[in-house]
From TrEMBL:
PANTHER family found in the cross-reference section: TRNA (GUANINE-N(1)-)-METHYLTRANSFERASE
Gene designation: trmD
Listed GO biological process terms: methylation
Organism of provenance: Streptantibioticus parmotrematis
SUPFAM superfamilies per UniProt: alpha/beta knot
Protein name: tRNA (guanine-N(1)-)-methyltransferase
Length: 271
């Protein structure tokens, strides 16, 4: 996969040189190129923003600068087809594991992280006529710029690529990973030593009984999800629950509604 990032703060993207992403770059699994937006300015102050039409606070990033930058990046990939443009923005589609999987299937991503009040809307509208455009939000909050979101999205996407993780099976049991437990958070994990500060580990994990261990992990996933993200259980397809799941949910204070989906029972106390 190729990833290009156009930004006014190239140094912000230095973390892409370390850990799994950095190793993937060294191996050639991931081709990451960071570009300074100011290289496409034509005044002595390297101006990338201006006042907003209609008034209001803040500044807006100029369309002509962004247009030249994105055109140049696209031209550098002649013969590779059009990239998918990813624009981090609080007003975009929520970034989920499902979207990470979708983006991981693209051969080429170009990120356009904004600063100030954002990028002139005409840039997104223009490129949407010939590129696939994804406006993406990593949460219901506002940052000083989109570079932090680029780091989040890139790491989530990169670890899904073949050859990036040391164990190709690692991401299959992640919270939100596609599969039978896609709507549950991952349960607790343990490693050696077996006793630390007088705290042991659940005996079932030492049993060697794979069926019991799998059941315990699923139960713990339900417990954690019910405690921290009850909304995930509420939107789960009840057809994915077995008899044991339903009994555990009842124990945790959940009951099926008229549509079959589970919600907290009346009078249930949150753990």
């Amino acid at each position: 996969m190729r990833i290009d990032v156009v930004t006014i703060f190239p140094e912000y993207l230095e973390p892409l040189n370390v850990s799994l992403v950095g190793k993937a770059r060294v191996r050639g699994t991931l081709d990451v190129r960071v570009h300074d937006l100011r290289e496409w300015t034509h005044d002595r102050h390297n101006t990338v923003d201006d006042t907003p039409y209609g008034g209001g606070p803040g500044m807006v990033m100029k369309p002509d600068v962004w247009g030249e930058a994105l055109d140049a990046v696209a031209a550098s990939g002649e013969g590779e087809g059009a990239p998918a443009l990813v624009v981090p923005t609080p007003s975009g589609r929520s970034f989920t594991q499902e979207l990470a999987v979708e983006l991981a299937a693209k051969p080429w991503l170009v990120f356009a992280p904004a600063r100030y009040e954002g990028i002139d809307r005409r840039v997104i509208d223009d490129y949407a006529t010939r590129w696939e455009v994804h406006e993406v939000s990593i949460g219901d909050y506002v940052l000083a710029g989109g570079e932090a979101a680029v780091l989040v999205i890139t790491e989530a996407v990169a670890r899904l690529l073949p050859g990036v993780l040391g164990n190709a099976e690692s991401h299959r049991d992640d919270s939100f990973a596609p599969g039978a437990m896609a709507d549950l958070l991952e349960g607790p994990v343990y490693t050696k030593p077996p006793v630390w500060r007088e705290r042991g580990i659940p005996e079932v994990l030492l049993s060697g009984h794979h069926g019991r261990i799998a059941r315990w992990r699923r139960d713990e996933a339900f417990r954690r999800t019910a405690a921290h993200r009850p909304d995930l259980i509420e939107r789960c397809d009840p057809a994915a629950f077995d008899k044991h799941d339903r009994a555990l949910l009842a124990e945790l204070g959940w009951e099926p509604g008229p549509d079959g989906r589970f919600g907290r029972a009346a009078g249930a106390v949150e753990e």
